[in-house]
């Protein structure tokens, strides 16, 4: 496959990851600001976040994608079908301003969350199917960068679009972006066919599929690393805005520092981190990226404890964003390495669910620590979590890294 063709595929996957991420970020992280302005209570805004629950059940959503074949190139057909459903939902939610209609807004947001979560499965199954193993780390870094850019677009730019052009405008733009992203896959659907499964493989049940995933060399160690490697630095990022406000930094400065500068830094280091992995080696990259995350959290803790001021806080934000970007790129790339080509959807869905469970649980625990132990207590707890992840990664680095290297060598 030529470099130009690979670049085109990477851009197509990156764009689709972006347009699938923006709606959820806009509705669940950007919209609460508008909700508050229209009198929504804190409890109502908190309950609205339950619309993100479909991500926890991605392993179940993956089963029909893997097993129900929609003709030749069925992953593309699944992606296009779910893209069409998402476009219809954008039209429904954008017809009328629903900010005062809590139940319809939640119902449509929940439906959009299901469709976007579901569409992510055939999209990344196609990435595993189409891209050589040597390109999958780059795909992971591009996906990580797309999520950082999605946070800037969905959590900031779309709010400005709505304020200037009204309720419908963001959904029109998101629909256009999605339709544009589907076009390359429509053109390439002929190459999406999978080789026929052997009869024994095709007859396997769901439990046998999952047992096969865990039976891969290094898969058990990778599963634990997937559960604990990212959530602690991710939780720190989630609480950075309120933490900086509590430290006396003005709201506008917080928005620019975390929302824009931090997002851009995370996106850049996602790309850089993915490129460095082949040079460092997977085993070394795992421990180095977790060490960088630990150092960033310790620096932030010292800055808060010593009251070093806005400049140090800004530097800490960028350090957390950089380490989180590099680490997420590596985690996404390794997720693809541990996704078997003949079980693209089911393996990817299972890993995504495992990742999501702790990514949602750790921020809840961090919030409890913040309420009962204060900022330093929360930061200390998250730092201990990253330290444990680093110690575990040091122990299993050769098992996990060896799997990646063996797949690259076999290609």
TrEMBL record:
Cellular component, GO annotation: membrane
The UniProt record lists the keyword Coiled coil: no
GO terms for MF: transmembrane transporter activity
Membrane-topology descriptor: Multi-pass membrane protein
Highest taxon in the source lineage: Bacteria
Keywords: Membrane, Transmembrane, Transmembrane helix, Transport
Stored InterPro entries: AmpG_permease/AT-1, MFS, MFS_trans_sf
Subcellular location: Membrane
Transmembrane segments: 45-63, 75-93, 105-128, 140-161, 167-188, 222-240, 255-274, 286-306, 312-338, 350-370, 376-394
Name of the protein in question: MFS transporter
């Amino acid at each position: 496959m030529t470099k130009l063709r690979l670049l085109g595929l990477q851009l197509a996957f990156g764009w689709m990851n972006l347009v699938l991420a923006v709606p959820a970020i806009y509705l669940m992280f950007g919209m609460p600001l508008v909700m508050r302005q229209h009198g929504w209570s804190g409890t109502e805004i908190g309950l609205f976040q339950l619309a993100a629950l479909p991500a926890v059940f991605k392993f179940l959503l993956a089963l029909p994608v893997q097993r129900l074949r929609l003709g030749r190139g069925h992953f593309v057909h699944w992606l296009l079908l779910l893209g069409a459903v998402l476009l219809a939902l954008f039209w429904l939610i954008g017809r009328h301003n629903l900010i005062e209609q809590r139940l319809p807004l939640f119902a449509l947001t929940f439906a959009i969350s299901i469709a976007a979560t579901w569409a992510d499965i055939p999209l990344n199954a196609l990435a595993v199917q189409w891209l050589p193993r040597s390109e999958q780390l780059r795909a992971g870094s591009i996906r990580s960068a797309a999520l950082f850019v999605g946070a800037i677009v969905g959590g900031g730019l779309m709010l400005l679009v709505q304020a200037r052009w009204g309720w419908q405008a963001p959904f029109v733009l998101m629909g256009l972006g999605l339709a544009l992203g589907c076009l390359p896959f429509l053109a390439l659907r002929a190459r999406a066919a999978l080789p026929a499964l052997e009869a024994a493989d095709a007859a396997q049940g769901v439990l046998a599929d999952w047992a096969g995933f865990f039976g891969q060399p290094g898969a058990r160690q990778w599963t634990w690393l997937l559960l604990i490697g990212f959530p602690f630095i991710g939780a720190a990022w989630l609480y950075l805005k309120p933490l900086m406000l509590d430290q006396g930094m003005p709201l506008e400065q917080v928005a620019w520092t975390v929302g824009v500068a931090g997002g851009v830094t995370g996106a850049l280091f996602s790309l850089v981190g993915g490129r460095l992995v082949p040079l460092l080696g997977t085993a070394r990259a795992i421990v180095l990226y977790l060490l960088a995350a630990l150092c960033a959290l310790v620096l932030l803790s010292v800055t808060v404890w010593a009251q070093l001021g806005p400049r140090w806080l800004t530097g800490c934000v960028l350090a957390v964003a950089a380490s989180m970007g590099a680490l997420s790129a590596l985690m996404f790339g390794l997720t693809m390495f541990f996704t078997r080509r003949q079980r693209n959807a089911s393996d990817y869905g299972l890993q995504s669910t495992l990742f999501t469970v702790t990514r949602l649980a750790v921020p809840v625990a961090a919030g409890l620590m913040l309420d009962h132990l204060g900022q330093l207590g929360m930061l200390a707890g998250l730092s201990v979590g990253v330290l444990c992840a680093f110690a575990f990664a040091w122990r299993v680095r050769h098992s996990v890294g060896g799997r990646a290297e063996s797949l690259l060598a076999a290609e």
